[in-house]
Amino acid sequence: MRTNIHTGADAEQDGGADLVISLSGAEATALGMEAATLADWFASALAAVVAMRTGHVAGDPANGAPTVADTWYWVINDVDNRLLPRIEGIRDAAIRAHIAAGGSLDRLALAMDAPKSSAQRPWNRARTTEPTLWERWATGTLPEPQRAELPDAPAVDQSDGDDPVVATVPPMPVHAVTYRDRATGRRVEAMRTGSFDAAAAELARLRREGAPLATMYIDGR
């Protein structure tokens, strides 16, 4: 896996920069289509920083729309609801792998840039609990039916008055196809369907037409 930044005449947009992640065949196989969705969600995080610093979606008043409430909806949805749980799963799985490989608590604290007392908690958790759902997602050990029903749906209050009970709405997996709009920088949903074949055909069409960051993923909503 290699990361590169292309600037100047090599960049797609004048005065801009292209961030490129190059995967080997084995890496691409291991990540599958999730490589594109993870990159898309991380791009949302970068776009959020640009919007916060400039007040415009594309960072330029001449080419980007001003930020509005809907701008932050997409940021929160992509970063908090989709990206962060996966990053936390990667972190927890890495700590578990560190311990399994014979790594010490001192080295874990050094990696975390934290006191040994702060590293003790994740160390103990990894040694005494089973892997979480997101750890199993990270390690590729989550069965396909569960992968299709990752709990992304918001919780709803099913209280009957004094004793609130919060339960998660069981997700209904569908295939969503999205791309990033060049003018606004927002992720646009092109299709939402229960048919994998229909979604794959739409994805192929968007990529033929050069739609930026065209991706397909299984969504729980």
Overview features:
two-stranded antiparallel ribbon, 7 strands, single chain, 221 residues, three-stranded antiparallel β-sheet, alpha+beta, globular
Which quaternary structure do these chains form? single chain
Low-confidence stretches are: 151-173
The helix content is 40-55%
The biggest sheet, with number of strands, parallel, antiparallel or mixed sense and barrel status, is: 3 strands, antiparallel
Question: How do the strands line up in the largest sheet?
Answer: 6-5-7
**Amino-to-carboxy terminus distance:** 32 Å
Number of helices: 8
Number of strands: 7
The chain-level structural class is alpha+beta
**Overall residue-averaged pLDDT value:** 78
Percent strand:
15-25%
| Radius of gyration, whole Å | 20 Å
Give the overall silhouette: globular
What is the H/E order? EEHHHHHHHEEEEHE
Q: What is the topological layout?
A:
Blueprint lengths: L1 E6 L9 E6 L2 H7 L2 H21 L14 H32 L4 H8 L3 H13 L4 H7 L4 H4 L7 E3 L8 E3 L5 E7 L6 E7 L2 H13 L6 E5 L2
Antiparallel strand pairs: 1-2, 3-4, 5-6, 5-7
Helix pairs in contact: 2-3, 3-5, 3-6, 4-5
